[in-house]
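Researcher: I'm preparing a figure for a lab meeting and need a structural model of a single chain. I don't have an experimental structure, so a prediction will have to do for now. The sequence is pasted below. Please return the structure as tokens so I can convert it later.
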Amino acid sequence: MSNLGEVTITRIYDAPRELVFECMTTPEHLTHFWGPVGSSTPIDNITVDLRPGGVFKTIMVDDATGAEYTMHGVFVEIDPPEKLVWSEADVEGGMTTSATFVDLGDGRTECTTHQTNVPEMYRTPEAQAGMQSSLDRFATYVAGLAQRSAS
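Model: Understood. Here is the structure written out token by token.
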């Protein structure tokens, strides 16, 4: 029997909402942060067809071993720059990820990522640490872009 659960992560990014949304939906940006520390996702391994029913696919590479990990999603809802939802039918239970972007009015953006039907292996402390390190990479990347565009 499946053991599915939910995961919610809220982070605040030092960048405007439009930039945060753009970075989450553009291969040229995703290649800089997609995946935990110790991995990379070459731009040729990223497909974003930003429309409901469109494909969201990444092939992340473990930098130490060369092992590849594919994420294959389908966009369910796109409401730029406020909301992005995709589902992953290949994951046991059909995991769905919803990202909501809130403009805090001071050049920062609060992003809440809520995942449903999350298999137990994705909820382990190790898996969650990997997710957090990917979000840390994203925070550094998007803040750097925001600083460069402000100067």
